[in-house]
Amino acid sequence: MPALRLLGRKWLAASDDLVFPSIFELLFRFVWLVLIALVVEVLYPVTWQCQTDGWHGGSFVRLYLCGTLTLQAALMLLLAALAHQSARGTITDVDIRKLVSPLLLIKVLLVLPETALNVMGTMWMFCEVIECSVDDKFSSIVIQSIVLFNWVQLGLTVFGLFMVFDPLGSVNYGDMQDTPNQVRHHRKVTGLWSRRFRWAFCWLKRDEHGKEAFQQVAALLSALFRSTDLVPSDVVAGCVLLRVRQKRETREMRRIQMLNDEEPIYTTDVNKIFSETPPWMNLEDALYYLRLSIAAYGWPYVLYRHCFTGFCKLATHLTCCCCRPKNSIVTDDNCCLCNFAGVKYMSKLPADDIIFASFNNKVFELPFCVIADHERECIVVAVRGSISLRDIFTDFTAGSEKFEADGLPENTAAHKGMAMGANKMLKRLLPVLDRTFQQFPHYDLVLTGHSLGAGVAVLVALKLRPRYPHLKVYAFSTPAGLISREAARYTESFVLTVGVGDDLVMRLSVHSIENLRTKIIQTIHATKLPKYRIMLNGFGYALFGVPARDLESTWRRPEDLEATHSDDSADALLVPSVSTVSAEAALVSRDIFVRRFSSARLFTAGRILHIARRKRMGIEKKVRTQEPTYEMRWACPEDFMELQVMPRMLLDHLPENVHRTIQTIIEERHTYRVTHIV
């Protein structure tokens, strides 16, 4: 940070990104240098005895050997200097690394003589053009290997240049501010991302809304990091630093709670948690409907969970192509009804209880199942979560649009991709529900889903509630940016949302990503460590956690590093008590914080039960006790407005981990009851 300037343009790399590449290449070239030196020691005297001594004989070979040896030595010195210069200073200390650009330019220019020498080696070893044979087998193998590895290394160099090439690198950072130039640049970046999507995901263009999704996601990616001059490695380093910063803030909050003798927010008492809730809000029913939500994922989830035995588990539920009925309740499945087989296997329900199953998966269209639950006397609609690239584009069509349904406050906004998915789903669902409730008029309606499926289920429920006022929704790991605040409050009476631990998706919204972007910039300005040290620390944190000493030693002034509150107001970033470390960081933060991709802030819907793993204290760390593994509390949507960089932020979102968590709580609760009775 900022991006590296070379050959009159900026690249998607920074001047401090070259430490590890330079060291790795230096080690390889050292091995090459030793091997070439041995070959020269053996072959140089022999070259005077070649059949011819001109440019088709010994002179050619001597030039190749001496030139390769000299070039490898020069490149090693250059790489050592490049690694040393790139390692100097912090991420923002660009001036101290001013020699990186000229050194890198020399390195790029040396590709030309290196290529020429490699061509000479190829002609000598592989083309039999040079009349100077090598009788020593070791030398011959070494030269051939070095020539081949050099071609591989040159190919990797070209590939690396392609990866860090910025098509809009000729634009200066000063021209990307809130001016007409910045607007034009934003349009160019949006168009560039849109073209990349059309090329990389060309098969999605056939979908009815494929091009619209490309445009929406391209606009989002363009808006998130415009005018920041960040490169990908800066974002990675910023996330590592945020992990340290957030752990430090958590420690300070716990210390304050202990000093104030505050009551813990979380509790392990399940009876206390559900003492004031309607009877239908309970963990047993939540676990049951979560199983149906998982069943909607179909055969890919079965193979994911049972890599070696999945096919055998599905085989007994498959339908022969010849035996498939003409008026099937299953639509858009393959010839053997593999998805339907996955639903039957995971739901543990007979096929007769599955009234309808649609596996049509396109952009803004999600598969879903309609199930008759005779034991609970309800009709269950299970909506599938994200599992395909089409679902990812639905997820990231994350702008807000007006959402209308009877009973909702005026000017309600919702996640655009999920709102379009809900409208598409209703067209297929309504006729099925009408037929089903004619057959089972006294049954209730329940909707359930996980992740994207949870968000769509909530929006579908809002549309259906005027017709089915007693419907209920069990939503699991619902995305944060779903619906506006007043509408989210309206859903608390009929939506139960369950989230586990540090689930990333429950905190993922356009606003939270924009806030993360701002905090990354502030945190990068706050650190006193060079980027290579941050990356090395990141590997250590992933394996062993963040040590206590790094909570203070990472920062220039730890006492000034305070949590930045999420506030749409730009002035909040300039309050003296909030650390922005430097005037430059404050100005950059303010400049990007006031620009929002989405004008409306969206929240998680329903009454939110947040479950977290209980932190073991004192003797519990050494002695295994009968204390519960998890604790929980009723949370509000505002608790999930900030992205947390945590080790389990992806694992806690997976449906099998959510299922295991709820199941463990129920089992431990039963065990605790039995123990006390005995």
TrEMBL record:
GO biological process: arachidonate metabolic process; diacylglycerol catabolic process; neurogenesis
Major localisation: membrane
Recorded GO MF terms: metal ion binding; triacylglycerol lipase activity
Membrane topology: Multi-pass membrane protein
Reactions accelerated catalytically: a 1,2-diacyl-sn-glycerol + H2O = a 2-acylglycerol + a fatty acid + H(+)
Lineage top rank: taxon: Eukaryota
Alphabetic keyword roster: Calcium, Cell membrane, Hydrolase, Lipid degradation, Lipid metabolism, Membrane, Metal-binding, Phosphoprotein, Transmembrane, Transmembrane helix
SUPFAM superfamilies listed in its UniProt record: alpha/beta-Hydrolases (SSF53474)
Required cofactor names: Ca(2+)
Cross-referenced InterPro entries: AB_hydrolase_fold, DAG_Lipase-Related, Fungal_lipase-type
PANTHER family hit by this protein: DIACYLGLYCEROL LIPASE HOMOLOG-RELATED, DIACYLGLYCEROL LIPASE-BETA
Name the UniProt record assigns to this protein: sn-1-specific diacylglycerol lipase
Source lineage: Eukaryota, Metazoa, Ecdysozoa, Arthropoda, Hexapoda
